[in-house]
């Protein structure tokens, strides 16, 4: 569970106000923060408006008002919310499978390979580099449902004879056993964007 928290005292709250007033302002501030963290998630991590992480954020009251103090924020149940913010080296899939890194605009838009149709992608392993890719399965099938053999063109044969490097293809995903996730600090982006509106909500008590 990832939680971004902020204490009202951090905003410079000085005057003593009623618990009800403080709670109402905390709710309003947490709503502002929810809006901004959704925007920063989409901007820095995933431009899809229906992305799982962007849709997972919810405003919360972490602790109720007590002694002129209340803690509010936003939270996401997705474990990788923190990973994308702080970064992580040598991250492995918790399910033991290879991690898919999107390479194309379409892959970034559609998301995980699990969101693609059955047999829409196929695995291509490049022996020279050891890299493994997912590419679109464009092979034609016969009436019996088997792949038709493709004839090599003169260009392909010429490339092979001349010691050509690798077959050319457009990869959608790169598969890795582990990856390094860079820190984006999108929490800070959201907090900085929300600060002006939150201070305005607190006008009169700070």
Give a concise summary.
This protein has 206 residues and is of the alpha+beta class.
What this model shows, in words?
The chain has 206 residues and is α+β, with helices and mostly antiparallel strands. It contains six helices and nine strands; from the N terminus they run βααββαββαββαββα. It has helices spanning 19-44, 52-56, 80-86, 105-110, 154-161, 186-201, and strands at 2-7, 58-63, 71-76, 88-92, 99-102, 121-125, 132-136, 171-176, 178-181. The strands form three sheets. The protein has a four-stranded antiparallel beta sheet with strand order 5-8-7-6. The chain has a three-stranded antiparallel beta sheet with strand order 1-3-2. α1 packs antiparallel against α6 (186-201). Residues 141-146 and 153-167 have low confidence and may be disordered.
Topology:
Layout: E1 2-7, H1 19-44, H2 52-56, E2 58-63, E3 71-76, H3 80-86, E4 88-92, E5 99-102, H4 105-110, E6 121-125, E7 132-136, H5 154-161, E8 171-176, E9 178-181, H6 186-201
Antiparallel strand pairs: 1-3, 2-3, 4-9, 5-8, 6-7, 7-8
